[in-house]
User: Fold these one by one.
Assistant:
Number 1:
Amino acid sequence: MRTSKYLLATLRDSPKSCSVISHKLMLRAGLVRCISSGLYVWLPTGLRVLKKIENIIREEMCKIGALEILMPIVQPADLWEKSGRLIKYGKELLYFRNRNNKGFVLGPTHEELVSKVFSKDIISHNRFPLIVYQIHTKYRDEARPRSGVIRAREFLMKDGYSFHINKESLQKTYNEMHEAYINIFNRIGLKFCVVQANPGKIGGMLSHEFQAYSETGEDTIALPIEFNNNFSNLKLSSCIKFTSIPFKEIFINETIRLVEDSSISSLEELISKFNLSVNSIVKTVLLQISTRYVKSPNSFLGIVIRANSKISDKKIKMILERYGYVLLSYVNVEEIYKLTGAQPNFLGPINLSVPLIIDYNAAVLDNFIAGSDVSGKYFFNMNWNKDILLPIIKDLCEESDVNFHNGGKSMPIMQNCTEIGHIFQLGQKYSNFIYDTVKKSSKNNISIEMGCYGIGITRIVAVLIEQNYDKNGILWPTIIAPFKLVIIPINMHSSVEVKKVAESVYEKLLQMPIIGMDILIDDRQEYLGTIFTDMELIGIPHMLVISDKGLTKGEVEYRDRKSKNVRKVKLNMLVDFLNKEIFYL
Amino acid sequence: MRTSKYLLATLRDSPKSCSVISHKLMLRAGLVRCISSGLYVWLPTGLRVLKKIENIIREEMCKIGALEILMPIVQPADLWEKSGRLIKYGKELLYFRNRNNKGFVLGPTHEELVSKVFSKDIISHNRFPLIVYQIHTKYRDEARPRSGVIRAREFLMKDGYSFHINKESLQKTYNEMHEAYINIFNRIGLKFCVVQANPGKIGGMLSHEFQAYSETGEDTIALPIEFNNNFSNLKLSSCIKFTSIPFKEIFINETIRLVEDSSISSLEELISKFNLSVNSIVKTVLLQISTRYVKSPNSFLGIVIRANSKISDKKIKMILERYGYVLLSYVNVEEIYKLTGAQPNFLGPINLSVPLIIDYNAAVLDNFIAGSDVSGKYFFNMNWNKDILLPIIKDLCEESDVNFHNGGKSMPIMQNCTEIGHIFQLGQKYSNFIYDTVKKSSKNNISIEMGCYGIGITRIVAVLIEQNYDKNGILWPTIIAPFKLVIIPINMHSSVEVKKVAESVYEKLLQMPIIGMDILIDDRQEYLGTIFTDMELIGIPHMLVISDKGLTKGEVEYRDRKSKNVRKVKLNMLVDFLNKEIFYL
């Protein structure tokens, strides 16, 4: 492809409105444009990346025998009414009536529809297990779309479904799908981990989430101590998603008790009186906040941190902003007394009926001490998820405080993550759709087990960028890059020789099978600075710089975008060099 | 692919509800399933065909420098309000409000959105002409979805858009796109023609439709006399779409006049008195009809045929059915007199305020004679589209009457067609979206010309089937077939030798680049009859039958699905034979 015939659509400056790095780079590098809150147009460069992810998914789905299909986005609402999800799914399900006053929804997922459609065919063809999937547009009516394509209204998903005549067959496919997901994310080059998801949500059956490391991720995962920044080490279930499953039992070894001592009026007195470590105490701070846009009645938020930590104003504000709120003030002593009847030291999470956010360091504690919201009374031996459900966990304190220690014990590493995949064993939850269809047949006594398997394709692009960028732009893994290699001819429009060689190299590479599609030549009449800035921003991993100077020695210059390594390559060795050292990637 | 691992989803019997052959075959061959009126699931076999059409389109778009993008299906309604189409587009535009009460539409097309999104990038990068396209789902809230995927609510389209700084550039891209469409439809193997579409609809600019021959098509095209059943002969503008553009001026050479002669009371008297040819007279028949499902108040329909033609009850009923109506009765003499005050002989299209359908043979007449709806008065020298707008044209009469003669003059051939592509020169119709965006820049005095270009991808599958089937099923062109070749081992599960050879042939073909993806082996434990029935129904163009009998002679049998030709091929020559005679297709 020639840049003169392409639409780079790069932006010199970051759009002011976006705070998330991946969103900023996706706009600047010309991957997407926002048309309305949560609705994005994928430009040529962005679509090239999407298609490569799609193809890796297709190949891995094919390997485990999953068949590709295409289901409508618009679904009859009566299917959702029957499954009970028309109400249960909540406001994210977009419902509308068509011109004939019939109810429809825009599909955020397809369990009902796929069960209804396939039941007859799988049974009449006795086709078990059947694994189908589609790669198609989904819609969720998000209240507050944010973080660019990560939490958009319309997005691209791979959603797969499997049908089985027994649990063993379901478990086998579930395992194969699990393996396929690991292959997919590894091939894409993602740093990710697998966590067992809350089983309560889907009725006691198995479910796993695939979580990718992402600075701005909304989930918090505790990585195991042996993690050592090596994601490929991570084994199934060795990670914990903080917000959805309880801590391991090992943390909880004592029973909570209420300790009363009216002589205590400060933290220092508490520590000295009971001979405690300051590391075992949490304090609770009350904030007054307001929604950002609509001046709604002010509301309160509780922040729980370790007693010796210092709240970071900046972090608090950033977190509130992400949820659409602003910080009005820290509630002072008089107001706390007016609201709770207690001194500020005795504030604690258990009896405080306001939303809570917990700092990492406080979240990893066990058998800790907290206020009881009654002056002179403390809870001792408190444990999250036993005495109080662990609320949202965030990094709330000054950097120097983030140490994750717990009285000398090794602690897990806390990591912000974004969910990129989710697999479920659904059991017979949607079976009534299947049995209704075949009620008239003689086979209505069979029991069909079902699994479902999702991958968020569009958000993978954003997460990949969060994992791979530098100050100049994106650092794509070669396999996913919109173009693998760019030829940059220096002064092409004035040097006959450079133009001749550049065009001949381009033509030669263009002829290479598959690779040919991924070669770019920057033939614009632009400043050299603009060309390099654009190519680094877009993140093309490999560059060939062709200049008069190099050509006098019969050389071109190869540059690696990520390592910034430069190598001189003899022209007659070029294709060989590229094949051996670059294109095998 | 092995049929045992695939989902054929073939049906033994035709579903009763569908009358259109392509719809019937698409259901029976397991290409699609209907989930709700106008909403279809594409099963593996159907999706394979769709993807092949998509890829041909992508290749041809790439050749003319069009860049692929992806736009959201959900569009902000304010864009449509601004263009005036929120109202103008009519009820087929699905409008909804989201949870924040903001208005959106499900995009049936994307002119507004693409103009708004791209204006800034094309102008700032000075990137003219820019041609972009997407292949994505569209939604039209059809009142009466019908003919399977041909008139569905949700469907797949290629929609392309181009931006230019002058009319010459637009015309150049328009011509290239026109050529690309011809290449696409030729490669797919469609019989089609190009007609100039009604220019009035888009304000005097140019527009062409690509119309494919289709028994059940809703459009009627007059093919030129030299057509001779050879679609590849057809040149641009040599066809006329009856329902959208006027007859050529040449037909109209006299002025209408009202002739009064109260002595005439019958057709015979009229002919003998004025020495007329019966071929120059039309008669009008009044029908009483009702909507099929809802018993609405009965309404009337006028039918205009040649005076010597005989209405076909069957055809009338079929046409009404397609529009959701049923025939109640032919209105009799007394009722006509009551309704119009005229004798039935004097009924005519001009003063009759009921919807009209015109028979082919009546539609091709010029300077003809018709009743005036006043007894004793006839209109002479009447011409369609001059004295009265030509209404819907259909084949309404008994077969023997369809002769298309007009007083010895050669007449065009009338052909039912389905629109598969449409290209428009839009001019500056959507320019306000572009100028708004760049109003602040210094370049706001440029004028941007725009073109748009659509292909209905899902309906192409149906139309292809209508052009290619026999009593056993579909006859796919090889390039589009879901699988190019099927290996049918006879008694594979009892003959060790057949199994061995079949598997080895399958493995060998599987390794072939590209072709390998399109090889099927029917390894089911099924009756041979079922296997052949399925494979012929699905329409796999090439079959290799491997049997013990053949193997004793070192042969396999090759069968051509369409011609039914059978050839014995030596096993050691098989790959060579396939490469030379089959796969080059």
Number 2:
Amino acid sequence: MTGVPSIDPRSGETVEIVADETTTGQVDEICTSALAAAGPLEDLGRDGRAALLDDLAAALEPHRDRIVEVADRETALGPVRLNGELTRTCYQLRLFGEVLRDGGYLEATVDHAGDTPMGPRPDLRRMLVPIGPVAVFGASNFPLAFSVPGGDTASAIAAGSPVVLKAHHSHPATSQLCYQILAAAARKSGAPDGTFGIVHGLRAGADLVAHPAIRAVGFTGSVTTARALLAVIEKRPEPIPFYGELSSLNPVVVTPAAAAGRAETIGAEFAASFTLVAGQFCTKPGLIFVPTGPDGDRLVTAVEEAVARLGPMVMLNAGIATAYERGTLALQAAVADGASPHTDIPQAGVPHTGVPHAGVPQAGVPHHGVSHTGVSHDGVPSLLPPSDGDAALKEPAGPTVDAPSGGTGRPRLFAVSAGALPPEATEECFGPVAVVARWSDEAQLFAAIAGLPPSLTATVHRDAGETVLPAELARRFRPTAGRLIFDGYPTGVAVAWAQHHGGPWPATNTQHTSVGTSAIRRFLRPVTWQNASAELLPAELREEFDSIPRRIDGVLRTRL
Amino acid sequence: MTGVPSIDPRSGETVEIVADETTTGQVDEICTSALAAAGPLEDLGRDGRAALLDDLAAALEPHRDRIVEVADRETALGPVRLNGELTRTCYQLRLFGEVLRDGGYLEATVDHAGDTPMGPRPDLRRMLVPIGPVAVFGASNFPLAFSVPGGDTASAIAAGSPVVLKAHHSHPATSQLCYQILAAAARKSGAPDGTFGIVHGLRAGADLVAHPAIRAVGFTGSVTTARALLAVIEKRPEPIPFYGELSSLNPVVVTPAAAAGRAETIGAEFAASFTLVAGQFCTKPGLIFVPTGPDGDRLVTAVEEAVARLGPMVMLNAGIATAYERGTLALQAAVADGASPHTDIPQAGVPHTGVPHAGVPQAGVPHHGVSHTGVSHDGVPSLLPPSDGDAALKEPAGPTVDAPSGGTGRPRLFAVSAGALPPEATEECFGPVAVVARWSDEAQLFAAIAGLPPSLTATVHRDAGETVLPAELARRFRPTAGRLIFDGYPTGVAVAWAQHHGGPWPATNTQHTSVGTSAIRRFLRPVTWQNASAELLPAELREEFDSIPRRIDGVLRTRL
């Protein structure tokens, strides 16, 4: 048995051994139990599961202090952020209760029997049903809102799908604590045993996605780990959907009018956004296009000054700190080697962090199309070829990688010309670093945008009332972004009905969102009943049922 | 250049060379043109595309006689069926026009800025946008409704996505003719060049799904070809969704009460359903559970008698005929070898078809988990290991496989005990064959059902008012079926709002449908606009817009 350590990233010390790594046999038992729970969990009905979600949220609140304490010890995210994250988590659980009570998510549709231009049509009634047990992989950077009690869990339970959690190695104690609270609350609320399960360890994660009882996977993490898990899924007799929220650059464009109007404000706010929580957000803006000229210079100076005021930041785990160091070294080398006309690479007065610079940039880091910087979202360095899934999964977890115990990251800013963007500047580097790309004309800007990978978000800063260039930028970004932001920052993803947290690869590998109410769609599948009598139909499809929105003979009707 | 032959399956003769196989360079040109058309096609708007779909339907009608003539010559499906299929095709195109005018498919959602328990929320507005150019692979068995002018095409064009068609080698002349009609009508209707493209040849199909401009694939065909195309997609730098409608057994259960009440009717109707169009439907019922005892005996006799009246049937192409012969031989051997207590395997008075029985069953057919019978949906024998994608794609198309020129299939019925179902009886065998599984008690029936693969459909025949056993059967089938049918037959898939034509693997590899209005969801992806002023928003998300259903601050509102 290998113990799963809980490590304090501030000291690099192991505080406790949380659990043994889950064995293959144990994974099988847990998944089998989840499968047995699927029917009874669905049978709770929409109202029953809405009450369950309320009960889960209510059960977390009394443990707030303990949860925040353990999560802070494991992640160094700090009590303010973690209290906010727990509030978000409870709100999210309750919002999915509202989704259930509303019922529109079922897409209930009734076509009565009748004649059509193609002949007689039978009575057809369609709605969405639970997909079955879901594996949820926690994220390093959101120990609550994207982990055990997070959005994947809330949306899967709402859908009626039991959840088997893969605890992230970066916060196993937080994961275990939250799991115990949720499982106890579920039992008390009348949910079946097996509604929640948890596994620890990389091999257990691979066993989990390979298990025949698992019908879908929710994942937030690196492209490399995602590819490793996808390789496991490809070996299943039957494929299952894998919803991966992966890697995102999140470009920002400042128009000349915006720079003229509020250079200092944008500069300070941008610095705050990309260094928030040491830049460990999937929505961190990693690249900002600033016009050349005095207004843009003022903006860049404001960013530099804000960055210079910041000290080294404790990162989530040693693997992420190491990857960040490698990524920023690669960026530095790329910017220095490049044809950039700018020499104002801020070496600023930022104090050295104690993480060794280790000589020259590691030119030997393989460029395999996934990451030029080698920076990984979840602390597993992406040095392995992406196709070698099993090897990636056999690699020890972050803390035991060749890396300093604990680790900090120094906020960094690099500057290049938009006309000579090195590849390293167009990929996510997880941590408090951003690249300023100075642009001198729209053709150059548009060409640079055309070369960017898809992202979760794209942001435009414009002057009040300015529409021509912003509209053109929105048009160009829309095919490759999931959310278009105006005069704001991508960090901070509201949990809402209209939210979309997704985007084309490598942002995600799905057309669905992992934040907001429509995240439930991932864990549902349609079924049509043909010529079924009322007794054989789900309540929501019976003739007289009218308390949810339904489309009847082609016309959408609400309950109002 | 290799010519693409149009072959008459009745004679096995090549009637004409339709085109040259499309070269890699030509595929690139066609896909590039499709990408260029994406913006202008979207800019036509919902009303513009609805008019376009009406125009496409209207353009096909005047060519009805010619289309049916060419399609019949290539498929032998007969003018009655093909006229019906063209009617369905035109209806389908127009129905997607209704979907556009309704606008609910956009899932338009508005959350106004405001305070929430997690703090202030920005203004968020979400709707679905086109995914980009789509590759549509035609099916052998529906030269119109699931091919060039079919449901994938209609739903993709409705979504605003240009379509590049892969003509099926079984009906290239029909494909080319329909493409020319659609492309000319689109041009006349004001759609951009590149709205439609077409490619011929297996290699062109692989080039197509590998092309960076292609953003999604609609496919109807065999698991083997699907796996080969998925292997190509896995080699892309970025994965794209592949919507495969693949392989389906479509089990039917007859309750004792139903057998008692209408044994002869069900027997005759079942025989008609599984032999319709030589059993070449993805919804062909391949397995029927009939109770033991006199009522069940009467039912089976009725099936046998109906089958005995049928002569050999011309199949879609020589590859399918060969695979069918191999599949039925494998079934026959499995039934003969098995522990089946039944000796009433109908060797009936069915006349021999002239297709050689070729000695003993081919015991050497590899059992690789995809097909025990080696029968493929699209005429490419599934003899290749599924992981060997490139090899499968290098294999010559159906007509040049070692097989008789042209080919017929003799309707067959096999009988086994539900307690000893051989694997060959639980997999799709494309063609006019079915297996009768006699069941003696519910435990035996439920155990047999638990061993079946997922299917597009599951059917229950019950007595009027009987609910206990039908409800239990529905409960057991629901996790593995896309459509639950009562007192009917799975063949005949109505194009409707409430239709679902899908199901878990191997029925499909997606949670979406390929028939019915919600098929459009496959070719759309969500985008959220954050803090966008009215000028920067699509019309449907502007404040004053009210002519489509929208969810506003969590409440669904219709235009009524």
Number 3:
Amino acid sequence: MFEVQIKIGLKKGISDPEGANTLKALHLLGFNTVKEVKTIRIIDLIIDEKNRDTVKKKVDEMCQRLLTNPVIHTYEINFKEQQDKGKMI
Amino acid sequence: MFEVQIKIGLKKGISDPEGANTLKALHLLGFNTVKEVKTIRIIDLIIDEKNRDTVKKKVDEMCQRLLTNPVIHTYEINFKEQQDKGKMI
């Protein structure tokens, strides 16, 4: 079993309408010191495979075929047990 | 200037339709070894304040008033420079 985390962001120069609208709404609520808002999506997968390299290859394929749009997105694949990033929500 | 990262996930027991549909789609594409898919949203903010405690308090207020739905979401606020989590996408 592997726990894999995929972090999906936008390529440089691609506009982030969700971020822009959040920024606008925050300003409307009076939070004027907020200068920038960026949104990122994270997908956590649990995969039942024995081989780490197979997992890496498969997740990469998933990203390209379904999870991301290669025209606008960048993605980063991390194995969770490697990182010791503390508890996830 | 502070860079703050808000991680928004779902409370335990709250269903994650996006994750469930992604799982279905991955199975349809033949990735049958995927057992679970969870989605998390991340919002990165750049805030122009001097005082760290003020930032913490304001971000907490933003989460409660706009960014999250306290009925279904959990959130975690992290200051980015503290963590040394490496480069973001």
Number 4:
Amino acid sequence: MSSSTALLTDQYELTMLASALRDGTAHRQCAFEVFTRRLPHGRRYGVTGGTGRVLEAIENFRFGEDELAQLADNRVVDERTLEWLRDYRFSGQVDGYPEGELFFPGSPLLTVRGSFAEAVVLETVVLSILNHDSAIAGAAARMVSAANGRRIIEMGSRRTHEESAVSAARVAYLAGFTATSNLEAGRRYGIPTAGTAAHAFTLLHDSERKAFESQVAALGTGTTLLVDTYDITKGIELAVEVAGPELGAVRIDSGDVGVLARQAREQLDRLGATSTRIVVSGDLDEYAIAALRAEPVDGYGVGTSLVTGSGAPTAEMVYKLVEVEDRPVAKRSSHKESRGGRKAAVRRHKETGTAVEEVVFHPDSPPELGPHDRHLQVPLIRDGQRVDGLPTLEDDRQRLRHALVTLPWEGLKLSQGEQAIPTTFRQP
Amino acid sequence: MSSSTALLTDQYELTMLASALRDGTAHRQCAFEVFTRRLPHGRRYGVTGGTGRVLEAIENFRFGEDELAQLADNRVVDERTLEWLRDYRFSGQVDGYPEGELFFPGSPLLTVRGSFAEAVVLETVVLSILNHDSAIAGAAARMVSAANGRRIIEMGSRRTHEESAVSAARVAYLAGFTATSNLEAGRRYGIPTAGTAAHAFTLLHDSERKAFESQVAALGTGTTLLVDTYDITKGIELAVEVAGPELGAVRIDSGDVGVLARQAREQLDRLGATSTRIVVSGDLDEYAIAALRAEPVDGYGVGTSLVTGSGAPTAEMVYKLVEVEDRPVAKRSSHKESRGGRKAAVRRHKETGTAVEEVVFHPDSPPELGPHDRHLQVPLIRDGQRVDGLPTLEDDRQRLRHALVTLPWEGLKLSQGEQAIPTTFRQP
């Protein structure tokens, strides 16, 4: 696999480029803006995910011999355009919401400025990353809220594309998940990884006892034993018999996990395994997690619903041309609201720190800032170079944690509702 | 990015391996089976997607220094396991449904045989690929049916993870899509690519006329002009004025595309552009495509709904241990149906060629085959080597086309219903 991101691109970006190079408009200075017209049905906030990966993708957006040959052999573009692409390197400016920042409909998540030529070709890969990663981040944040401080492990790799899985694990961690099962996410992003055994391990052995003995011998008494292969009550009894009351945790992956967790807790306590934790998994989403709040559950394993965005697998962001040579432009379409002109945003807060409004405005006429208000876009790329000292994934994880605390309390409700704070557009 | 697929894996596959190497069960001969318990809500058939990519992923499942260092540094497994992984190379057998074959709940889509050690570690990446690719293939096939022979172009890259986009384009083509906008899919899989211009191109120019003139100069009169940036009627008039009646196509991306297509056809015919095609796009799914059957639409561009599986972004397949040393094994869980034992499948057909039943059985006791029945699993890997002469993507595309024709007519309905043919499990 090539490390170039250049062909992760819709063909029309390059045919537009070819026409624009021919007619001389390719070098007009433009601003493109990434935003979404709506949140997924009933969601109250969005979470910016993928900004860090976008910056990497822009750096790796280079046309080598392989990429150029593909375009030449299929006559996608003409010779002049191939020559232009050969030297391509983004040299413009990018500003945007850092990862972990909340967003709302109309929030200017990313602004890309440069010549039409250098900015238009980035559209597809920028949107792919932000649409996927923000969809997962938004779902993940709701799950973390629902878990209410309990440990929550991402284990959805098998239910999504193998590369989406790695990116999903990354933004799940951003959103506050404790760990991931995905080893590549551990390598690529330094995220903690976790995992012990599946039902296959028990089935492989001549008895559940032999399986537990083997696992404890290999991984220690602090391990998590999966107790629902045959009979949960017998499984728990056996688990404590084999590992002793020092057993780290038991995992229950099927059945009515709320009832089963209560029974398991009583049984574990009776057996003296009072510090043994109970982990539940199996088709959990944010609603199931919340429903287990009153139960003695110590941790959750979440798979399918996380990696599919819990009903909203894409954030539906768009990348729109909003300025040409400082002149605002917008499509005049029948049903889609479009606002021309470059934008920035401020979030206003009450004195208590509670957010009240997302104000979107032209950068040349910023609103007055109250003591608790703050600018949301930060410089990400200047003259083609990534800005120094950009936040780490850990920084962004803290950012989201703090941002969620600023939402009005209704904003954190899982039920369907309006966006937590309104977006106000100021005329320039 | 490493080309190794080894870490696209849940940690527990490797901790199970470590325990099993320690206790001596790692070398027991096992069979794992991939199947799904249900189709997405109301769907009548599934389409096998991703088998070809699975074979590649198995070949590239190797632990190099980078992968081993990650596991060692994080103490995921012990030294003995690291040594074993260093020499890992799958040496077993894989049989399965070829791509483009239909499947139903319980169909044994893939059977992996080998030692526990060598087969268990493949679980995550095999499921990631089949779950994603089959989800997209299933949605794509319904869209192609709905398009009823008209051209249909995949253009969803921006709405999904950048690597999922490439795989989605691949299986959309498998399912009968005409082309994709994704250039990397063109390079990697030789799929036809397409695309001309977006609204940004019109907005960049001083007038719509200048934009159209530029595009026609660069791409010829056979190009597709996007006519809905400002006013569709004026856009079409201008398009024919600029390109002449030889104009290849106009594209309409917003509004009530059915009504607009009718108006556009009348207008184009009036202008003498009788062979100019009409392409529509913008939030189309299989239902919207079907609803446009009576309208003068020549082609569809489909994005979001395709890459998100049109409401079913994962196929929910599982990879279950079904045999250990020729002994059937199964979890005895409270609510999930599990059938131990290795399986194969035959599809029975009437004399007319219409499919009537999916028969699932143990390979050692196959049912008698009628003249129109056929075995569904084919050998894919023998002793670790990919079988010679496996079908190409074009072959698989034809396979699906033929398979869909064999479905009872209700099976192709888009409305919610039962699976098109029943699955029958024969006791061994």
